[in-house]
Amino acid sequence: MSHAEKLILDGNAVAAGIKEQLEARIARLAERGITPCLATILVGGDPSSATYVRMKGNACKRLGISSIRVELPASTTTEELIAAIRKLNDDKSVHGILLQHPVPHGIDERAAFEAIAIEKDVDGVTTLGFAQNAFGFADYPSCTPAAIMAILAHYKLPIRGRHAVVIGRSPILGKPVSAMLLNADATVTTCHSRTEDLASIVRLADIVVAAVGKPKFVQGDWIKPGAVVLDAGYNPGNVGDVDYEACMANASAITPVPAGVGPVTIATLLKHTVDAAEKFGG
């Protein structure tokens, strides 16, 4: 199969479709005097986290979604962060709360995530949000897993009965996407850093989700001919977790980095914020 015959899974196109559907919904909310509002909390000065928060803010602005940026110093305590989250929970004009991961060492990140009210947990980071996703009825599943499912749906790539291998087990990516694929009738193997003979397991996969946080980790000869490859990684130098050129040789469909999963993740966050505004906006 030549490069020309490969299906490049264009995240920008999928994201544009999601945003287009949101425009009319945002206009209808405006008629009711409601502006969807996303609050992002950034603790410390991590430059890549600051970039992500800025990108999310710009995406909100372009669609007419209000965004509040809460910036706290690296010296912030767990108690101070939870107090800031509770203040946003109580603010009726805020519909979604996003705590940018990771937070500085010394803060209990899990306790901070748990402080987010479930109706404002637009990135599915609470234990309850995770559980609802596992059961298949979450209002707001984690955005990157939801983005992966949206890409598969957009391109009508079959999931039912397929063997999906997820590389990574984080509570906001690997585990929730495994649950979503399972709920969509895939047979799912979740791998991680301690998986033995990882390559041989990946070679069995019809769908590969790379979420391991290591540049070009997934090798071309790991990919079964005709497999679908979804790269959820983003590393310095605009490189994903997949060796793109090498994996493309065998894959039938593959997401690029950038312009793959990333734009759809942000569009999903905006969608969840609009969903929350419609549900709880007054």
TrEMBL record:
Known function: Catalyzes the oxidation of 5,10-methylenetetrahydrofolate to 5,10-methenyltetrahydrofolate and then the hydrolysis of 5,10-methenyltetrahydrofolate to 10-formyltetrahydrofolate.
Binding site for NADP(+): G168, R169, S170
Protein name: Bifunctional protein FolD
Xref: InterPro entries: Aminoacid_DH-like_N_sf (IPR046346), NAD(P)-bd_dom_sf (IPR036291), THF_DH/CycHdrlase (IPR000672), THF_DH/CycHdrlase_cat_dom (IPR020630), THF_DH/CycHdrlase_NAD-bd_dom (IPR020631)
GO biological process annotation, one example: tetrahydrofolate interconversion
Organism (species): Paenibacillus rhizovicinus
Pathway terms, separated by semicolons: One-carbon metabolism; tetrahydrofolate interconversion
Alphabetized Pfam families for the sequence: THF_DHG_CYH, THF_DHG_CYH_C
Domain Tetrahydrofolate dehydrogenase/cyclohydrolase catalytic stretches: 9-123
Source species, domain of life: Bacteria
EC number: 1.5.1.5, 3.5.4.9
UniProt keyword terms in alphabetical order: Amino-acid biosynthesis, Histidine biosynthesis, Hydrolase, Methionine biosynthesis, Multifunctional enzyme, NADP, One-carbon metabolism, Oxidoreductase, Purine biosynthesis
PANTHER family referenced in this protein's UniProt entry, alphabetically: C-1-TETRAHYDROFOLATE SYNTHASE, CYTOPLASMIC (PTHR48099:SF5), C-1-TETRAHYDROFOLATE SYNTHASE, CYTOPLASMIC-RELATED (PTHR48099)
Lineage: Bacteria, Bacillati, Bacillota, Bacilli, Bacillales
Domain annotation Tetrahydrofolate dehydrogenase/cyclohydrolase NAD(P)-binding: ranges: 142-279
GO cellular component, one term: cytosol
Family per similarity comment: Belongs to the tetrahydrofolate dehydrogenase/cyclohydrolase family.
